[in-house]
Amino acid sequence: MIAQVYKEMLNAKSVIRQFSEFATARGKEIGYENVFDYSLGNPSVPVPQAFTDVMIDMLQNKNPMALHGYSQSLGIPEVREKVAASLNRRFGMNYTSGHIFMTSGAAGAIAHALRCVTVPGDEVLTFAPYFPEYGPYVNLTGAKLKIVPPSLADFQINFEAFTEMLTDKVMAVLINTPNNPSGIVYSAETLTRLAQTLTEKSEEYGHPIYLISDEPYREITFAGVEAPYVSKFYPYTLSCYSFSKSLSLPGERIGYMAVNPACPDAELFVPMCAQISRGTGHNCPASIIQLAVAEVLDETADLTVYETNMNLLYHELTALGFTCVKPGGTFYIFPKALEEDSVAFCQKATKYDLILVPGNSFGCPGYFRMAYCIDTEKVERSLAALRRFVREEYGIQ
Description:
Blueprint: H1 4-9, H2 15-30, E1 36-37, H3 49-61, H4 64-68, H5 77-91, E2 100-103, H6 105-117, E3 123-127, H7 134-139, E4 144-148, H8 159-165, E5 170-176, H9 188-205, E6 210-214, E7 237-242, E8 255-259, H10 266-280, H11 287-293, H12 304-319, E9 332-333, H13 342-349, E10 354-355, E11 357-358, E12 368-371, H14 376-394
Parallel strand pairs: 1-10, 3-4, 3-5, 5-6, 6-7
Antiparallel strand pairs: 2-8, 7-8, 9-12, 11-12
Helix pairs in contact: 3-11, 6-10, 12-14
């Protein structure tokens, strides 16, 4: 008999993918350049030239067995050392290679972090709006994901609801800042209060509550906005990072989990991850990509296009009367729809070749997400379609 849980998941297709597939099909009809596809968060800027140069140099000059052979289960030692040194230099931490576990992107890091600190039956809290894949990430470990309702005024943490839901069954809290889908960056004040709450409740319940910090957008912040390094605030933090967005390398699937050195038993987590990999089949991210990113750790792609696109959209949306919290980073914006049913709103938008994603699956019905990681020229052309959409469907001039 096949596994029923996965069979049932076939009937719960991602709404993001559904709208993306519509965009692809529509593009075949009218040319994809004429479809204003804001559905997928796929980086739209090229990798840094420095990364390309490193890859070419390694392929021409390095031992092929070192480039293409298996890495150690924990990751290549010199890569882990360089990651630790970069984090220490940038954020004033004191990581060693023993606190770094190389993974297949942030998803792989979260998969290991969850299994390090939960067992089946435990609860994990996250905050709406949240990345929908957190559901399977958590629930397929046997733990149970529970969603804290949003603070709609600013998309910071709803601490009143959080405190009520933070029972002794909660073993971990999963956060994402800068945030997909809202683009909001948690402030130092928010993170300080979060750390204080977790510390108090950990003491009350007699067990640590771990903070799993999903950080793939850490480098994408806008003018005047600082993204505090989460591990600076709370010792029981596991940072989950991906180079997919900072270096525009989503297809290479490379990231890491970093264990806060101040965490008790910190030295156990990375060896535990190697054992977790044995059961998940995760073993050994690609050696050549580990070695390449280690040479460009302080580089990023040209991320400025995302702020340009955000400003264009935010200005137009607010001018049209949308309620919208201004993003502080990422390449997402999350306005309130012009009707209560955001699914219906997004379906109506497709008539104008605007591909938007309803907020229901992000834990915020009535809102919608725009992933503006597209060419600025296309963003500019989409504004006329947006104006026509709201004028003809909602009577807004």
